[in-house]
Amino acid sequence: MSQTKGRKPTKRSKLSPEAAVEQLEERYQSAVAALEKAFDAYLRHSKPPTAKERSAFRYPLLRVLCSEVPETPPQNRRAFAKLQRPGVYETTITHPGFFREYLLEQLRPLVSEFGAELEVTTSEQEIPYPYVLERTHEATEAGVNAGELARHFPTPNLALVGDQVADGLVDSETVSVYPLALFDAVRVDFSLRRLVHYTGSDWRNTQRWLLLTNYHRYVDQFIRLGVEQLQAGGPFKRLVLPDNIVIDRETPPEDVDNRIAASQWQKYQMPAYHLVGDKGEGVSLVNIGVGPSNAKNITDHLAVLRPHCWLMVGHCGGLRESQAIGDYVLAHAYLRQDRILDALVPPEVPIPALAEIQVALQDAAAKITGQHGDSLKQRLRTGTVVTNDDRNWELRFAQQRQLINISRAIAVDMESGTIAAQGFRLRVPYGTLLCVSDKPLHGEIKLPGAANAFYETAVAQHLEIGLEAIALLKTRLDTLHSRKLRSFEEPPFR
What sign does the dihedral 219-223-229-234 (CA atoms) show? Predict the structure, then answer.
């Protein structure tokens, strides 16, 4: 966030949201082109950029000026694109072309409902060269090391990367310029590069509807269902696998298996799979692996894409005698023993269930299973999920028994509470639907034969429920971005 002191809203020529985004794109592309030109000159002629040339390597800045807030604010259920006080709001922007629809979604109501004026200029925030140049291998080939490049070109400065706005660390009473968005350009670019590293796919393939899982068998089903959708002429345009391998509607059936086999997903810590739709309205599945550290890591990075929601669909241990393997658990509360977010969202802070998500997951389960009423209630149980940071938590059950009991916990896993807390913290709607794969307290542990039988029948149905829930949420988008995720000091952008 820019901290320009003494700024006051001033009258200027009107700039439409569309024109503002175009100017952002022009300034961004100009900065990237200047950086590429200087990079080439250094590799070919050992000519470092001058101070004047380097001043062009900067992110564009978007400024929103509000002279006054209407005495009677516009009445709507929208949870974003609102101004609480007059003043100047700023943020730096990266990849404005990619984020065009998102930016317009935020800016149009600010202009039409609040009379805000827009301004685009160049910021003081330099663009780190590793975030935009895909040719750094050329430096190695030319015998130029990273330390040498760092002397002449902007590099990531971790002191400038953080979540101060999201975490409520910006005091509106002490700044003269308010934050416009949760994340500035350098924070977004940091995460975009990490997404490529972890998922094995271009970040531009990531869709705005996210499924997160902790088991690879869900991936197999996602690929199968995705291919079936494409071959049937469904709503998606292509399926993108790790290593950016593409299967589309024109892919010959005999080539599909070869392309799936060619994807080296094992190379990546959290491989991602994307059913690409128009304007990013498809579905991405990320196999986040096991544990709260992975869950926090990937959601930290996915959040900068401002997804519509993320849903956890994975396995859990059932804690109640009445549960059967293959039953579902719809989390309405979390006993957070993951500990990884304790400093950011302390355990005493409640993580609410979002009604819109809960209803969609339950409706989807009813449709896919064909069960309703009491029959569905016997199969799908709503309750507390314990999220633990200890894979062998059973060895400490004697010490944990009372806490699990008084929390009324019905299931245990290692990711759901973290994902929900991250959604709460980063304003991304969240939900959890788990499938009971074992009952450790009742002697029903995973054995090879029983486990395989379970996986063959349960995983496919569970994934279908997740996809159906997203399909339902797409029809209910106007109510999805809940106001309960907004803070007192909330930036205008979602």
Answer: positive
- Hunting for tokens 């100009």 — which residue is that? 30
Inform me whether the pLDDT recorded for 1 exceeds 60. Answer: no
Q: Is the pLDDT of residue 343 over 70?
A: yes
Average per-residue pLDDT for the chain: 90
Region 200-483: CATH code: 3.40.50.1580
Is residue 405 packed enough to be buried (19+ CB in 10 Å), middle (13-18) or exposed (0-12)?
Answer: exposed
Enumerate the domain spans of the chain.
17-193, 200-483
Query: Which token pair is 21?
Result: 């985004």
Q: What integer pLDDT is reported at residue 480 of this predicted model? A: 87
**Would you state the CATH architecture of domain 17-193?**
2-Layer Sandwich (3.30)
Q: Residue 93's pLDDT is what?
A: 98
Nearest to 272 by CA among 376, 198, 336, 221: 198
- 256-264 mean pLDDT: 94
| 63 touches 178 (CB < 8 A) | no
CB 183 within 8 A of CB 148: no
pLDDT given at position 2: 44
pLDDT at 459: 87
Local confidence band at 279 (pLDDT 50, 70, 90 cut-offs) = confident
What is d(CA 278, CA 284) in angstroms, rounded to the nearest whole number?
13
Exposed e or buried b for every residue in 417-451, given b needs 16+ CB within 10 A? Answer: bbbbbbbbbbbbbbbbbbbbbbbebeebebeeeee
Q: How does 37-60 read in b/e, with b if 16+ C-beta sit within 10 Å?
A: ebbeebbeeeeebeeeebebbbbb
| pLDDT given at position 14 | 86
Residue 143 reports pLDDT greater than 50? yes
